[in-house]
């Protein structure tokens, strides 16, 4: 699914440059490059995944605003038979863009959270104790060697200088 969303973003980049939305095309291309970094090397890089989530979310918010603005302030309706072909192509691109960006945000956030949870479980089993995996919290204190207890200060107070 992730690759399909990246291909959808690539199509959006091309479409945005065709309809002369250079700024939107550049931002979507930057998100596409970050998405490519997520899967570079044959594995999922969770840190790049977080950056990809944030980029897609911000772009999706801007695209939703652009879509609402386009719906309110244009001569034709979003998809009109009377409108020129390029207007309808732009409308389709402006409608698909927030959907693809939000889907990419949701999927990448799920991948990021799953990777963080898997890493946490791996670290707990590798470096943790039995108590750190929360299977036996009561036995944690009994495994420590006996140390002398805490004793508060019992001496006299002396003042320096008079």
TrEMBL record:
This is Uncharacterized protein. The lineage of its organism: Eukaryota, Sar, Alveolata, Dinophyceae, Noctilucales. Keywords: Membrane, Transmembrane, Transmembrane helix. The chain crosses the membrane at residues 25-44, 51-72, 92-113. It comes from the Eukaryota.
